[in-house]
């Protein structure tokens, strides 16, 4: 344990601030049914300044979940529907000429918001997708030679459809690596879908969503999450998982070497640690345990692994590889 770390004090702070996230989940519950993990992943992104990529079939409440989270926080929200004819200026903004004053003025784009929903991000060409890169990584935008800082919190929440291929442009590795988590959204269970069916059959209006927290509350939560204790043994566990994606033979996983063309970047180590702290916070704990790492590992790593043709031929996906890593790497 590091010196001068009072775990009990951290626990007390976590339990006190967890009331804020409880309010957000309670406000979202009447709207979102059967997708608790998706809401938790969105919360992890919000608590750690991490952008989220949601992948799932149509109709699984991806857009609704993002809208709901934004509505519970008193911040600016914008939605960008990505299409093949979208231009970079449609994202970040542009210079507009004013004939009356004979000069140019800046018209800021929809990226100037606290919550930016990039709906069906894989429908736009690469030059438009790359327009988000500076904003996502540097939290700033350059228009006409001038740089503008984006307000905090700033969160890009993107959705994509994994099965539709016509008119889509796969995200390049440089872009996907900037997303903290890639969350695969699955169908709700039977009872949850029964509840969804009943709510829609009654014709009852969706209850209005009011903000239950503000941006100052989010800043406070982020400070608390950053203070969650991460032991050196947990750090080593994170590094073992990430390094095993690069040199699996060094971790008695030589069978994975032909399946991986490249491993996870250093962003994986950083984001795995940050996400694990947020995961511990959501469990109302002031310290990270190995189960927190295992719970979030797939969402952090699945989009950062390069698979070979051999892996595709054997129908092995990134999730299966991460599962093997979790099963094999020694837990502290």
> In this structure, how is the largest beta sheet organized?
5 strands, parallel
- Distance between the amino and carboxyl termini: 14 Å
Write down the secondary-structure element order.
Answer: HHEHEEHEEEHHEEEHEHEHHEHHEHH
* CATH structural architecture of the largest domain: 3-Layer(aba) Sandwich
Can you tell me the residue ranges where pLDDT is under 50 for at least 5 consecutive residues?
none
The CATH class of the largest domain is identified as: Alpha Beta
Name of the CATH superfamily of the largest domain = P-loop containing nucleotide triphosphate hydrolases
Number of strands: 13
Q: Provide the spatial order of strands within the biggest beta sheet.
A: 3-6-9-1-10
- Percent helix, as a range, is 40-55%
- Helix/strand-derived class? alpha/beta
Could you list some keywords that capture this structure?
Rossmann fold, 332 residues, two-stranded parallel ribbon, 46% helix, Helicase, Ruva Protein, domain 3, 5-stranded parallel β-sheet, alpha/beta
């Amino acid at each position: 344990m590091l010196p001068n770390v009072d775990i009990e004090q951290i626990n007390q702070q976590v339990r006190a601030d967890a009331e804020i996230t409880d309010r957000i989940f309670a406000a979202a519950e009447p709207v979102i049914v059967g997708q608790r993990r998706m809401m938790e992943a969105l919360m992890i992104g919000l608590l750690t300044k991490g952008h989220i990529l949601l992948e799932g079939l149509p109709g699984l409440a991806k857009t609704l979940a993002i809208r709901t989270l934004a509505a519970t926080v008193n911040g600016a929200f914008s939605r960008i529907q990505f299409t093949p004819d979208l231009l970079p200026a449609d994202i970040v903004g542009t210079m507009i000429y004013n004939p009356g004053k004979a000069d140019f003025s800046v018209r800021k784009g929809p990226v100037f918001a606290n919550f930016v929903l990039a709906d069906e991000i894989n429908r736009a060409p690469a030059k438009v997708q790359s327009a988000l890169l500076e904003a996502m990584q540097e939290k700033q935008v350059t228009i006409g030679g001038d740089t503008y800082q984006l307000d905090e919190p700033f969160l890009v929440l993107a959705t994509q459809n994994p099965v539709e291929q016509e008119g889509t442009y796969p995200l390049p590795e440089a872009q996907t690596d900037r997303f903290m988590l890639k969350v695969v959204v699955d169908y709700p269970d039977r009872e949850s879908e029964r509840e969804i069916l009943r709510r829609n059959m009654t014709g009852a209006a969706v209850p209005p969503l009011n903000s239950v927290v503000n941006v100052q509350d989010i800043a406070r939560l982020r400070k608390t999450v950053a203070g969650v204790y991460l032991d050196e043994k947990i750090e080593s566990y994170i590094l073992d998982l990430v390094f095993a994606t690069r040199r699996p033979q060094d971790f008695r996983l030589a069978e994975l070497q032909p399946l991986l063309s490249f491993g996870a970047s250093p962003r994986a180590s950083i984001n795995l640690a940050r996400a694990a702290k947020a995961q511990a916070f959501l469990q109302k704990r002031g310290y990270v345990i190995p189960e927190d790492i295992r719970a979030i590992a797939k969402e952090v790593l699945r989009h950062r692994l390069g698979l070979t043709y051999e892996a595709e031929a054997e129908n092995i996906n990134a999730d299966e590889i991460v599962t093997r890593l979790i099963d094999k790497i020694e837990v502290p």
